[in-house]
């Protein structure tokens, strides 16, 4: 819609319509095929000869569409533009304001501003040139919100608080470790639901976590060394129960695992009251700075 000479290439991936998630309309097709047909339809409605191709890439979603030529003459642009406007309006959701009738303006006058990269807030002199009132594009710089950008000291504090909460939630349990014929006890603590864990964290911590996608659960899963989250319940990880690396594991993954061995300090060796449940030679993490690689 930017100009008559515009061509396009698109590799459909996530199922989105103009204003939100794509809603399925046919049950006889797979969701992927139905969405591909929708994307192709957009190209046809916009007056393109749409070509479909399958890319040689390592992905399950590798069907692409190319629009290199138009199905109409340049003189018919105004008529096709009305057709595009009607198509967009027909797919609007009730969540979008429909009172604005300024859609489908003369793009000869307004194309210049719209061909530029979209920003979250259009400049004042361009507010009347938007094609879709109510549409909110993403920010130019997408904010990382998977708890990876949280301050390290904040993450460490939450991890320690949650671990202590699990360790003190119930009387110490005995975990049998019969290596060498000795009976050793190692406190694995209790398991608690995510809701129970959240109830014990202060308001400021929860507010900070709520601003991240996944919140508390994401932070705990990111700290795989210390916790495992199963069916909405948080457990302290017992590395004695972890399966040894499979010999059938791809060579690349085996090499990466070997390269990561002893490159980080063992949280349990430093913080757990019983230390690490594994001997130093079996633990993938360093028992002290002298073991760090």
UniProtKB/TrEMBL annotation:
Localization (cell): Cytoplasm
UniProt GO BP: tRNA methylation
Protein task: Adenosyl-L-methionine (AdoMet)-dependent tRNA (uracil-O(2)-)-methyltransferase.
GO cellular component, one term: cytoplasm
Main EC class the enzyme belongs to: transferase
Domain C3H1-type: 260-290
Signal peptide (UniProt feature, chain positions): none
Listed InterPro entries: tRNA_uracil_MeTrfase, Znf_CCCH
Reaction(s) the record says it catalyses: uridine(44) in tRNA(Ser) + S-adenosyl-L-methionine = 2'-O-methyluridine(44) in tRNA(Ser) + S-adenosyl-L-homocysteine + H(+)
Molecular function GO labels: tRNA(Ser) (uridine(44)-2'-O-)-methyltransferase activity; zinc ion binding
Keywords, alphabetical: Cytoplasm, Metal-binding, Methyltransferase, S-adenosyl-L-methionine, Transferase, tRNA processing, Zinc, Zinc-finger
Family that this chain belongs to: Belongs to the TRM44 family.
Superkingdom as given in the UniProt entry: Eukaryota
ZnF (C3H1-type) intervals: 260-290
Protein name: tRNA (uracil-O(2)-)-methyltransferase
Stretches assigned to coiled coil: none
Chain's gene name: Trmt44
Protein EC: 2.1.1.211
């Amino acid at each position: 819609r930017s100009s008559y000479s515009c061509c396009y290439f698109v590799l459909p991936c996530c199922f989105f319509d103009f204003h939100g998630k794509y809603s399925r309309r046919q049950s006889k097709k797979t969701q992927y095929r139905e969405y591909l047909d929708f994307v192709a339809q957009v190209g046809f409605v916009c007056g393109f000869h749409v070509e479909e191709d399958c890319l040689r890439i390592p992905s399950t979603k590798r069907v692409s569409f190319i629009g290199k030529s138009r199905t109409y003459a340049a003189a018919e642009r105004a008529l096709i533009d009305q057709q595009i406007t009607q198509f967009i309006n027909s797919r609007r959701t009730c969540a979008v304001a429909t009172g604005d009738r300024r859609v489908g303006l003369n793009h000869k006058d307004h194309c210049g501003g719209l061909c530029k990269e979209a920003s979250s807030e259009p400049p004042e002199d361009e507010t009347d040139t938007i094609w879709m009132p109510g549409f909110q594009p993403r920010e130019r710089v997408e904010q990382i919100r998977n708890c990876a950008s949280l301050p390290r000291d904040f993450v460490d504090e939450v991890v320690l608080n949650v671990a202590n909460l699990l360790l003190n939630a119930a009387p110490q349990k005995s975990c049998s470790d019969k290596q060498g014929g000795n009976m050793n006890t190692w406190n694995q603590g209790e398991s608690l639901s995510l809701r129970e864990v959240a109830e014990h964290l202060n308001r400021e911590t929860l507010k900070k976590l709520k601003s991240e996608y996944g919140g508390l659960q994401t932070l705990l899963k990111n700290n795989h060394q210390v916790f495992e989250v199963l069916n909405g319940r948080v457990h302290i990880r017992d590395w004695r129960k972890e399966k040894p690396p499979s010999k059938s594991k791809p060579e690349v993954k085996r090499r990466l695992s070997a390269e990561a061995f002893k490159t980080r300090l063992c949280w349990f060796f430093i913080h757990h009251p019983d230390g690490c449940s594994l001997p130093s030679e079996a633990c993938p993490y360093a028992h002290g700075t002298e073991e760090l690689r």
